[in-house]
């Protein structure tokens, strides 16, 4: 008996660095997986690799119709939807607020925040039809403080926290739990590739050496927490926020010179 036998899980951004790790792990633990992403090539390849309990659907999280189609596909192909992971997200090209144009601001908010709002809105009735379930919204440790040059991203991830808490209140009586995960710096293309053109990537601003666990996070670190939060083992946890950052937010380890 696996933890997610007879459960159907929809992961947005399901072909990405963290999303594909989540998809693989849910699948390995018995779930039917719906891979939602705008990248159809990677999505089809991942679904093929995993086989019959995996299905790719092209999902643009900024589009409510696209969401309705994805949830319908989950119910048609697998019979129900039990878990939603709002994982799709993008970062802005680094720039101070004064040099951030409104189009960039709106695009980041659309994907990271409106995408999560629409996911909860459209998936909630399906989760109710399944007699309950779980939603996890992937925010960021950047949603717990400020980060210069990342205002749209930081604002979007802060806002996801309020959305999570409100959804937890609205959906708790329907046996739908809603929680947030705040990953620290996780080793995916998200932090390694320049966000736009020749501009710097997040990884260029960050070195893990001074921190309690001096390495980058791996997608599987986040996946393990996600699987716990969406499993029945977490049945009393809702509206909560989980930081998984290797101690990054604790600040640097002070190492005074020894005599
Ligand atoms: N990597 C990190 O250090 C880090 C840290 C904290 C939080 N996060 C968050 O983790 C989540 C996953 O990021 P990742 O590290 O796997 O990055 P990633 O770039 O590998 O994956 C992001 C995925 O989102 C998809 N996507 C983008 N726009 C979309 C849209 N409109 N609709 C549907 N899918 C869309 C992309 O195609 C991609 O597959 C994001 O929400 C990100 O903000 C990442």
From TrEMBL:
Keywords: Oxidoreductase. PROSITE patterns: ADH_SHORT. It comes from the Bacteria. The keyword Ribonucleoprotein does not apply. Residues 1-21 are annotated as: Disordered. One of its GO terms (molecular function) is oxidoreductase activity. Coiled coil: none annotated. It holds the Pfam family adh_short_C2. PANTHER family: DEHYDROGENASES, SHORT CHAIN, ESTRADIOL 17-BETA-DEHYDROGENASE 8-RELATED. Belongs to the short-chain dehydrogenases/reductases (SDR) family. This is 3alpha(Or 20beta)-hydroxysteroid dehydrogenase. It comes from Kribbella jejuensis.
